[in-house]
Amino acid sequence: MCPRSVERIVSLTGALRQSALLIAGTGEQRYGRGYMNRRALIVDDEPAICDLIQKVLHAAGMEALTLTRSTEATGLLEEGKFDVVFLDLHMASPDGIELARQMRRTESNRKTPIILLSDDQRPSAMSVGFEAGASFFLYKPIDKDRLLKLIRATQGTMEHDRRRTRRISLRSRVLLQFGAEELEAQSVDISPSGILVKSDRTLPPGSPVSIHMHLSEKMRPVVGEGSVVRIAGANQMGIHFDRLAPEEAERLQEFLLPLIAGN
Predict the structure, then answer these.
(1) Which burial class, exposed, middle or buried, applies to 176 when counting CB atoms under 10 A from its CB (0-12, 13-18, 19+)?
(2) pLDDT tens sequence across 214-254
(3) In terms of domains, do 42 and 72 share one?
(4) What's the pLDDT at 49?
(5) What DSSP assignment string belongs to the chain?
(6) In terms of Cα–Cα distance, which of 130, 131, 86, 143 is closest to 112?
(7) pLDDT of residue 123
(8) Which of 46, 88, 200, 243 lies at a CB distance of 3.0 to 4.6 Å from 123, suitable for a disulfide?
(9) In sequence order, what are the beta bridge partners of 139?
(10) Is 21 inside a domain boundary?
(11) Average pLDDT over residues 81-110
(12) 33-37, 38-42, 107-111 — which is least confidently predicted?
């Protein structure tokens, strides 16, 4: 047998053993207070990306299983339970979008935070990712500090359901542009994928709007495009972020992460 084949068998054997531990939930690894180490799954066809994320996770006290073939993730996501999952957006089928949708249909990982890894700079890619069930986006090349912030934000979320649907109460000025009309509004709550605002008048569901969010006096407004998806009461509108440039999405995420972790 050639050395490469032996190496592959050894690697596969190790991965299968990790998979068995993750699925069975054995007590081999515990925190000092008796809790199981938090488990992460990383699915990316670039081994260097998997290694980088795994090292940061280990430093944060998390066990991590890495897969470079997305086809191997399907069974794990059905049978295993994870505290956070990293999915590459663009892979051979099933890609990150398909796997995210699959996760949201499972019982064990329906509410697990999903971090999509992407080098796709199109705002539409982020919108599709959130619709599929992503909690956060992490753009390549990966910044270790930003990665660590995301990991900290997901710590403890299994007990408190802090997901992409987890909205943070926030009162801030929001300017909406609907055609030639400008509406002054105030945020009620906000998440990485949308915002609930209060205004003197509402727009019909489906209305496209430009959004300027003045989240803090210390930062310039976060700007993007969205659409009204629901009306709440007489003067509140739920707006989904349809198009946020990667820079704007990262700024919004950076602002929200400490609030999500602190709630």
Answers:
(1) buried
(2) 999 889 999 999 999 999 888 999 999 988 888 898 899 88
(3) yes
(4) 96
(5) --HHHHHHHHHHHHHHHHHHHHHHT-SSSB-TTSPBPEEEEEE-S-HHHHHHHHHHHHHTTEEEEEES-GGGHHHHHHH---SEEEEESS-SSS-HHHHHHHHHHSSSSTT--EEEEE----HHHHHHHHHHT-SEEEESSPPHHHHHHHHHHHTTHHHHT-STT-PEE---EEEEEETTEEEEEEEEEEETTEEEEEESS---TT-EEEEEEE--TTSPPEEEEEEEEEEETTTEEEEEEEE--HHHHHHHHHHHHHHHHH-
(6) 86
(7) 75
(8) 243
(9) 118
(10) no
(11) 94
(12) 33-37
Task: Name the pairing type of β-strands 181-191 and 168-169.
Answer: antiparallel
Tell whether 81 and 132 lie within a shared domain. Answer: yes
- pTM value is 0.62
**Is 121 in the same domain as 69?**
yes
Structural domain span for residue 206: 168-262
- Tell me what the pLDDT averaged over the chain comes to: 82
- Write the DSSP symbol of residue 70: G
SS3 139: strand
Question: In this structure, is residue 99 part of a structural domain?
Answer: yes
124 and 214 in one domain? Answer: no
What CATH code is carried by the domain that includes residue 243?
2.40.10.220
Angle between helices 144-154 and 47-59 (to 10 degrees): 60
